[in-house]
Amino acid sequence: MKQKKSFILGCVVLLCGGLLSACGINYDQVGKDLNGEKQPAQEAKKEEGKEESKENKEAITNGTEIYLIDKHGYVVPQTVAIPKEKATVDQVLQYLVEDGPVANVLPNGFRAVLPAGTEMKVKVEKEVATIDFNPEFQKYKAEDEAKILQAVTWTLTQFENVKKVKFQVNGSNLAVMPVAKSPIGDGLTRANGINFDYSNTTDVMNTRPVVVYFLSENAGGVYYVPVTRRAPIDGTDMLTAAVNELIKGEDVQSELVSDLEEDVKLLGAPQLKDGVVTLNFNENITSKGKISEHTLKSLVLSLTEQKDVKKVVVQVNGKTDVLDDKGEKITEPVSRPQKVNTGSY
């Protein structure tokens, strides 16, 4: 695992020339460096080009997360520029269709989850989104069925007014999916999980699901992948369980890695107060006295998946004067970024 991690991070440095600027990993604003302004070749088009650049920049700033399938088969959030000030549920779903509008903004190494020709209508009532698909929806491969359920559910539940997603075809409710017969029941929520990794689980009854974020990479840079693991029910709180899963990392055969080394340890239970969780680690959370952007962001993304967690404070041996990888003190609790994976396209 450690060799693979070094390979990924080395590639990112070469490809991005600086993770924060070129890859758009930024806690304060979305996609800051994604949209380099283009200068028109002809003098007569300068004003038009400026206007287009301004509109495109606004679209990216108001970017929307959609869940796509990466080259390894994982369902991954990607922030794309949808040409509207505020994307709607109906509009976002169109970006999940192969050969649809997503074709113009598709990140390198990713593909859409719904078959070409899929059309749908969406109705949202009492925090439930009911999607009525046309028959073309049923033309997916069996191995994509779980990915479709996850991608659609996680894409729509980013909207504050959607907590559950139901599926229909031609107005008829689906209790199971049409191809591989995956059960849907009364609808799906984020609690149903994403990118399941139960490879090291031997006792499902005495474990519980927890979502943590590992790293992967493509030609556009590094990106973060949510994975549902099963953590032991052994008296450990869910926040500690999430951190432990990150430290445990992925199997050496996996395409994903964790930026937390195996000798990283929590020096006590996480403390949660007013939405801010404080984590006290040993010195191994840092390298040369600095905590990496990848470590910090993996922690923040993973822990803010937990109920009531909005921000994260990292301490080292009880001290809060932790340096980021630029050598600057992290003086404020770190919030979850508004959008995930803004820089891999």
TrEMBL record:
<feature type="domain" description="GerMN">
    <location>
        <begin position="239"/>
        <end position="325"/>
    </location>
</feature>
<feature type="signal peptide">
    <location>
        <begin position="1"/>
        <end position="22"/>
    </location>
</feature>
<feature type="region of interest" description="Disordered">
    <location>
        <begin position="38"/>
        <end position="57"/>
    </location>
</feature>
<dbReference type="Pfam" id="PF10646">
    <property type="entry name" value="Germane"/>
</dbReference>
<feature type="compositionally biased region" description="Basic and acidic residues">
    <location>
        <begin position="43"/>
        <end position="57"/>
    </location>
</feature>
<keyword id="KW-0732">Signal</keyword>
<protein>
    <submittedName>
        <fullName>Sporulation protein</fullName>
    </submittedName>
</protein>
<dbReference type="InterPro" id="IPR019606">
    <property type="entry name" value="GerMN"/>
</dbReference>
<feature type="domain" description="GerMN">
    <location>
        <begin position="89"/>
        <end position="178"/>
    </location>
</feature>
